[in-house]
Design brief:
Layout lengths: L7 H17 L9 H12 L4 H20 L8 H10 L15 H15 L16
Length: 133
């Protein structure tokens, strides 16, 4: 295990290399920093579904890259990343106010706009009442 304390640029390089090795299916090194071993153990404990593993690791890699470029001392663990993504979503699967609006809220916004745009007598009928021949 390597014990030197690398700078943020070296951490970013080593992190990207580690994730690329995981994405390609083989880790070809035999010297790891303690944080790399911790990340490998954490990734293994997360039990990612094989079908979503590559995309999840790529998104995780981009999140850690942003984090390290913003001055973080160590990379975010995958479990922390997944927990933060889960916390940003509502229990019903829709995003919170910080994400994109849900379909229900955009439909109600359209309804409010229709009410403002058209007088009651000239309001167009709803799509459900329109029948095609």
């Amino acid at each position: 295990m390597c014990d030197s304390a690398p700078d943020s640029e070296a951490i970013l390089y080593r992190f990207n290399r580690l994730i690329q090795e995981l994405l390609h299916g083989s880790v070809k090194r035999n010297c790891f920093h303690r944080w790399e071993i911790d990340l490998l153990l954490d990734i293994d404990e997360c039990n990612l579904a094989r079908a979503r593993r590559r995309e999840t690791l790529r998104r995780y890699q981009r999140a850690v890259q942003r984090q390290l470029l913003n001055g973080a001392a160590r990379p975010l663990r995958l479990s922390e990343y997944l927990a933060s993504r889960k916390a940003r979503r509502k229990p019903d699967g829709n995003r919170t106010a910080t994400g994109s609006p849900s379909a229900d809220s955009s439909a109600s916004a359209v309804g409010r706009l229709d009410a403002l745009s058209y007088p009651e007598s000239k309001r167009p009928s709803s799509p459900k009442s329109i029948r095609r021949s």
